[in-house]
Structure formats: structure tokens, C-alpha cells
């Protein structure tokens, strides 16, 4: 237990410490402090010049269309192209649609297993490329929002911002992590699968590939799409406790740094501290719950002659340590990463509820860039509710939040439960969902609920027993991922564009301060009430029902 | 149109740097510095590849130590977990088969990791307790003393992560290779 607490403290606390200088650096980067690099980037792409919210959003949309079209084409033809040593065949169009949508939207929901589906060219040139640029898109959007809230006249330039994020944030960190992983035993080769003869004389074919480069950016960009099917539970994707430590830290470092970057860019570091505190409190609650629930033994073995003194081991890897299952499950769903270090389908029922709750809230640090943008929506809601309670015009840092802005905030926030609960209801009532389950009863319902939560949160983890490579699942979750990605990016840009057009009022003694504990508590309660009230009935039908009926 | 052209140029430049240059750099580093693990940690005995140090392989003979159960039956081209809920009766049924194979009884219960399938189905390790649990069977099958086998097991055990994770585990393939060497 002591060792587990030490590990958690090291991973969370150590990463939090590192995130501060990183966030400071990111703020400087997006404030144009590296002028020579910026000039070089402008020469690369052209399209320079300041953009208002509409131009910024259009540039973002245009580049994302290019991303989608290119990767769709590559995945549709990969079996004809080079770098395919294992001879992977053609892929169905609905799976290609789902996969392209999944990686463009930074979700990385995978209805396939990498080692038996895609060539190395498709994995590197299509999926890994998107892991860089989809993450950069999110960070760029946060920079634009921060500029607007901070009172600048323009939102910046999308093409410049994406290159800053790609080349000067993601790439250097990816090189560090990939080198560490290489030294920890992760393979990095273009050779096809190895064939060996086991000690008992059987043939075993062992998939391998350019894994280290892929896994580094998978973890850093809140992407989460694994090189192999079972993601970071696969020993070649996560070979040791020490590889595991850096993979965990890589999940949260940029989401944490985004909070500091936001604070610096709006010139309110104390406000950022309050936001960081609220997120850290949510994380602490989820961690405590998950670690506690997962220490219960596997119920299915309870009446058998089995020694169970270390909790539920189904779906877990011994070399990653006892704490990795719940710790990874919480971190990967607090951010929108979605890689896994244990099989979520085999977590104890209430432990499985914790990652779902993470995806329902989706702003405990959240996805790179977009997590902080989600938090901005909750801030606007909290400020509005607080303003109504005391009968004053709601203001955020001198920006008046009025009817138009609130309509947009509500549109973005309501879309999340609507997509999750609507989709779950449809698939739980039809053969589209029912025929694809791996578990029966309440846990089967949880599989459907988890899948839609993961798609709508742009998370990408899954209760992987679900047989989700069907036309219905591929099309439905593909559409959900696209809506749930671009609505919560473009709507906040529009909100901030609307705020920028208005005159800012001076803050006075009567203004709600966003830099103190009162605001922190208000924000915390807004998040909990909104999340709990919306999703509680679904939770009761799934994990809670399973726990109450089957756990002793 | 004013956004499409820069988008295409952005695609080209990010693709060249993040896919071509980055992959080449990491590939060069890995193949140059750690060629053994860069190619999958394949163990060769007398020039023949017998397995990967990091990937579980199937053992059913009583002469060898057995790994944890595997949902894909140790297929290293289709790794997967069971994805069964811990409350599932399917898990109970699977565990009963494993328990029968080991001959576990209430008086001699089996360590939990030997009945629980791992996440990817390829976990190369078992717990030290799980290895010691199999010592008598292996010793009898090989006609060696349990004490000799036990000593070998303990010499192969490593801690997961030092102070941060002191629990001890054993790599099954390496243990079985050592076992074969013992008899030579």
C-alpha cells in the first residue's frame, strides 16, 4: 500500500512539477517569443496574417478536411503500398471511415487490432501523423481562445500555431519519450513478424514493428491509439515498470501544462492555480475511488480454491505493478487519452464506473488543449449561475456573459450527454448493440454506455469485449466522434469571438473574483451537479446495478 | 481556397518532419544502441529463435513452468484480454479448468495470477508464489529434487519496480530455459 501511494505521488506530483515550466514555455511560444522559428514556419505554409474567430475556425476546418481525406485514402490503399511486410489485406470502408474519424478527432477509438489490420505505412504515415497534428490542432485552438480571453485583438494564425505545437512542443517531447521507451525494451523495427519455435516445439509468430516512435506520441498527444490491439497491456508496447512510469507521465504532462499556459496567456496565473486545484481535486477523488474498488478480489473466483490477496488480477499485467490498473484507468479518462494499462472491461463494476465518470466530465485536465477549452465552458456556466444567485450581470475577467454566449455554452455542454445517452439508448434497444455484447446483463449495458461515452469524449478507450467492428458501430461512433470534436472547438471560438467584439468592463470590488477558493468551490459544484444529475440514471442501470446484484 | 493551399503545405511539412525524419531518427537510435530489444527481444538458443523474452508462449508439459491463462491462446499476432466482467460465470468456468489442471484444493489454494488472464494475453511473467506453486510438479516430472528447482526459481525472481513496487515476479521463458540448462 505504501509503495502504491509512493508511485501515485511520484507520477502525479512529479508530472505536475514538470508541467509548470512546460506551460510557461508554451505560453512564451504562443506569444511569439521565438520569432525566427515563426518566420520559418510562415515560409513553410504561407497563409500568414492575423485571423478573427471565423477565419481561425475555417483554417482549422480546412486542415482537418485535408487530414481526413489523406488518411482515408491511405488506409483504403495501404495493402497495395510498400512497408507491408506482414501482408495486411484490404480494410472495409466503414472501418476506414471510423478509423480516419477516430484519429482526426484525437479520439483513437480502435475497432481493429493494429498488428492484424494495417501496414507499417498506414500506422506511421496515417495514424501516427494524425497523432501529431490532431493534438496540435487542439493546442492551437486553446491558444486562440486564450488570446481572445486575454484581450488581444486577434486570435492569431492557425497555420503558425499548429507548427509551433507540432515542432516545438510535441516533437521534442516525443523524441525524449521514444528514446526512453527504446532503452526500456520497446521494439523499433521495420521487419515483419518474427517466427520462432517454442521450447515445446510449436511455431509462434510474434508481431513487432516501429512501436517506440508510435507509442511516444500516442501517450503525449492524448491520442491513445495503440500499435497493438491490447494497447499498453501488450508487453512489447509497455515492457516494464519503468516504461510504464514514463507512459503514465506522458499522458498527463501536456494537459496539465495547458492550464498553466492558459493562465500565463491571459495573464492570470492565480486563476490558473484555482483551475488546476479544482482539476486536481477531481482527480484525487477518482483515484481514491478506483484504487479502493479495485482492491476487491475477482468475484468469479470467490468460491474457488484461489488465493486472492492482491485484488482483481483479471486483465492485468504483473510487470506493471498492482497499482497500474486503476491509476492508468483514471488518468487516461481524466485526460482524453484512452490508452489502457489494464483491460477496462474486466475492472470491478464500480472501478469501471470511475473512467466512465471521467469521460462524462471530460475536463479533469482533459485532452491536450481541448480539456482546458471544456473547462472554459464550465467556467462560463459557473460564472453565470453565480451571477444569477447574487443578482449581478455575470462577468468573466471583465467580459460580460450574456444570453448569446450562454446559448452557445449550453449548446456545447448539452451535446455531450445527448450524444452519449441518445446513442446508448438506441443501441441498447436494437440488435445494433445487443448482438455485439461480450457480457450479459448490466455489464452488457455498461459496454454500450462506455463505447458511446468514449466516442463522445474523444477518449478512445473501450470495454473491449464489445464486438464493435460492425457497420452500425463504425458509422454511429464515427459520426459521434466528429460532432463531439468540432462542436466543442468551434463553439468556444465563436463565444470568445463574441466576447472580443464587446467592450470589456473594469473589474471592481463587486465582481466575482475568479482567483479565490470561493470560485473554486463554485466551479467544482457546478461540474459535479451537471455531471451527476445528467448521467446518474445511466450509471445506475450499468455499473451500480452490477455491483449491487453480483458483488458480495 | 485561401485555407486549402496552406493546409496542403502544412500536411507536407508536418508529414516530412513527423513521419519521415522522426521515424528515421528513432529507428536509427534503436537499431544502433539496443538492437536486441529493437527487434523484439528474440532469444536464440544455438542459433535458433525460441521465443521473445517479453512474450508469453504456451507451455503444457509438466516438465515446464506454465504461464498465466491467455484469452487468445498465446497467439502473438492477435493479443487480447478475456474482457469478461469479474462477476462473469464464464470466468468461474475457465478458472475451474485451470484449477483442475493444477490440481489445486482448498487445502492448497492456487495463487491468483495463475487463474487470471492478463490484459494482452501475453504476460511473460508469473508471480514468485505462482512459480513456487509449480515446483513439486516440475521436480517430479524431471526427476530432480524440489529443493534444486526451488533454488533455481528464486535465483530467477526479480522485483517489479524496487521500492515503488516490491512484489516479485519470474519470467517464465527464461526460467524454463534455465531449467533445460540445469539438466544438460
Describe the structure.
- The complex is a heterodimer of chains A (552) and B (184).
- Chain A has 552 residues and is mainly alpha-helical.
- Chain A has helices at 2-30, 35-45, 53-77, 93-104, 120-149, 158-183, 211-220, 241-265, 269-294, 324-334, 349-361, 370-390, 403-429, 431-434, 441-456, 471-500, 517-550, and strands at residues 194-197, 203-206, 306-307, 395-396, 399-400.
- Chain A has a two-stranded antiparallel ribbon with strand order 1-2. Chain A has a two-stranded antiparallel sheet with strand order 4-5.
- Chain A is globular and about 80 Å long.
- Chain B is an alpha+beta fold.
- Chain B has 2 domains: 4-36; 53-183, no CATH class.
- Chain B contains 7 helices and 6 strands, in the order ααββαββαααββα.
- In chain B, the strands form 2 sheets. A 3-stranded antiparallel sheet of chain B has the order 4-6-5. In chain B, strands 1-2 form a two-stranded antiparallel ribbon.
- The longest helix of chain B has 30 residues, at 4-33.
- Classes of the chains: A mainly alpha (552), B alpha+beta (184).
- Chains A and B meet through helix 1, helix 3, helix 5, helix 6 and strand 1 of A and helix 1, strand 2, helix 3, strand 3 and strand 4 of B.
- Strand 3 (306-307) of chain A pairs parallel with strand 3 of chain B.
Amino acid at each position: 500500500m505504501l509503495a502504491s501511494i509512493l508511485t501515485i505521488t511520484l507520477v502525479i506530483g512529479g508530472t505536475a512539477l514538470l508541467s509548470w515550466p512546460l506551460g510557461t514555455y508554451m505560453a512564451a511560444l504562443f506569444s511569439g517569443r521565438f520569432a525566427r522559428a515563426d518566420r520559418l514556419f510562415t515560409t513553410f505554409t504561407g497563409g500568414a496574417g492575423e485571423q478573427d474567430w471565423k477565419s481561425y475556425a475555417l483554417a482549422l476546418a480546412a486542415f482537418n478536411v485535408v487530414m481526413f481525406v489523406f488518411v482515408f485514402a491511405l488506409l483504403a490503399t495501404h495493402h497495395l503500398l510498400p512497408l507491408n511486410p506482414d501482408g495486411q489485406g484490404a480494410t472495409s470502408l466503414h472501418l476506414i471511415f471510423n478509423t480516419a474519424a477516430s484519429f482526426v478527432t484525437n479520439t483513437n477509438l480502435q475497432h481493429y487490432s493494429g498488428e492484424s489490420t494495417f501496414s507499417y505505412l498506414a500506422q506511421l504515415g496515417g495514424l501516427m501523423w494524425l497523432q501529431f497534428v490532431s493534438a496540435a490542432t487542439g493546442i492551437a485552438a486553446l491558444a486562440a481562445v486564450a488570446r481572445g480571453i486575454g484581450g488581444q485583438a486577434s486570435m492569431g494564425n492557425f497555420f503558425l500555431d499548429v507548427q509551433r505545437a507540432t515542432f516545438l512542443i510535441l516533437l521534442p517531447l516525443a523524441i525524449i519519450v521514444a528514446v526512453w521507451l527504446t532503452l526500456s525494451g520497446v521494439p523499433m523495427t521495420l521487419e515483419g513478424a518474427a517466427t520462432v519455435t517454442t521450447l515445446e516445439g510449436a511455431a509462434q509468430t510474434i508481431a513487432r514493428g516501429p512501436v517506440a516512435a508510435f507509442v511516444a506520441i500516442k501517450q503525449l498527444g492524448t491520442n491513445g491509439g495503440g500499435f497493438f490491439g491490447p494497447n499498453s497491456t501488450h508487453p512489447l508496447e509497455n515492457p516494464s515498470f519503468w516504461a510504464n512510469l514514463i507512459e503514465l507521465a506522458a499522458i498527463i504532462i501536456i494537459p496539465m501544462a495547458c492550464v498553466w499556459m492558459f493562465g500565463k496567456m491571459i495573464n492570470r496565473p492565480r486563476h490558473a492555480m484555482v483551475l488546476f486545484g479544482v482539476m486536481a481535486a477531481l482527480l484525487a477523488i477518482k483515484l481514491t475511488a478506483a484504487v479502493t474498488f479495485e482492491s476487491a478480489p475477482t468475484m468469479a473466483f470467490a468460491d474457488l480454491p484461489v488465493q486472492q490477496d492482491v485484488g482483481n488480477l483479471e486483465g492485468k499485467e504483473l510487470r506493471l505493478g498492482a497499482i497500474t490498473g486503476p491509476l492508468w484507468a483514471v488518468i487516461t479518462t481524466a485526460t482524453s487519452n484512452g490508452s489502457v494499462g489494464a483491460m477496462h472491461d474486466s475492472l470491478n463494476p464500480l472501478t469501471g464506473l470511475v473512467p466512465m465518470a471521467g469521460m462524462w466530465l471530460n475536463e479533469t485536465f482533459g485532452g491536450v488543449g481541448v480539456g482546458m477549452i471544456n473547462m472554459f465552458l464550465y467556467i462560463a456556466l459557473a460564472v453565470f449561475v453565480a451571477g444569477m444567485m447574487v443578482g449581478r450581470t455575470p462577468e468573466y475577467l471583465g467580459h460580460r456573459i450574456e444570453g448569446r454566449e450562454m446559448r452557445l455554452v449550453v449548446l456545447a455542454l448539452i451535446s455531450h450527454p445527448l450524444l452519449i445517452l441518445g446513442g446508448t439508448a438506441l443501441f441498447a434497444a436494437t440488435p445494433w448493440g445487443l448482438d455485439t455484447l461480450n457480457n450479459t446483463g448490466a455489464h452488457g449495458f455498461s459496454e454500450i454506455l462506455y463505447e458511446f461515452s468514449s466516442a463522445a469524449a474523444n477518449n478512445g478507450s473501450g470495454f473491449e469485449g464489445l464486438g464493435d467492428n460492425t457497420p452500425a458501430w463504425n458509422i454511429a461512433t464515427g459520426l459521434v466522434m466528429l460532432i463531439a470534436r468540432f462542436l466543442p472547438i468551434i463553439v468556444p471560438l465563436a463565444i470568445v469571438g463574441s466576447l472580443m467584439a464587446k467592450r470589456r468592463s473594469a473589474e471592481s470590488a463587486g465582481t466575482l473574483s475568479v482567483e479565490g477558493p470561493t470560485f473554486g468551490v463554485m466551479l467544482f459544484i457546478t461540474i459535479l451537479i451537471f455531471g451527476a444529475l445528467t448521467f446518474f440514471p445511466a450509471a445506475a442501470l450499468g455499473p451500480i446495478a452490477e455491483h449491487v446484484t453480483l458483488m458480495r | 481556397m485561401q485555407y486549402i493551399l496552406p493546409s496542403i503545405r502544412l500536411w507536407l511539412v508536418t508529414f516530412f518532419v513527423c513521419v519521415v525524419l522522426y521515424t528515421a531518427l528513432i529507428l536509427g537510435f534503436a537499431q544502433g544502441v539496443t538492437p536486441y530489444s529493437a527487434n523484439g527481444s528474440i532469444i536464440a538458443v544455438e542459433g535458433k529463435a525460441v521465443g521473445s523474452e517479453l512474450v508469453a508462449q504456451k507451455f503444457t508439459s509438466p516438465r515446464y513452468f506454465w504461464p498465466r491463462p491467455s484469452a487468445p491462446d498465446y497467439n502473438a499476432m492477435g493479443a487480447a484480454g478475456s474482457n469478461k466482467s469479474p462477476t462473469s460465470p464464464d470466468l468461474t468456468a475457465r478458472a475451474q479448468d485451470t484449477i483442475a489442471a493444477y490440481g489445486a484444493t482448498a487445502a492448497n489454494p492456487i495463487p491468483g495470477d495463475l487463474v487470471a488472464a492478463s490484459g494482452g494475453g501475453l504476460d511473460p511473467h508469473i508471480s514468485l508464489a505462482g512459480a513456487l506453486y509449480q515446483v513439486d510438479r516440475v521436480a517430479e516430472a524431471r526427476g530432480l529434487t524440489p529443493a534444486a528447482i526451488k533454488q533455481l526459481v528464486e535465483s530467477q525472481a526479480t522485483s517489479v519496480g524496487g521500492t515503488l513496487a516490491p512484489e516479485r515476479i519470474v519470467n517464465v521463458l527464461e526460467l524454463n530455459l534455465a531449467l533445460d540448462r540445469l539438466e544438460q
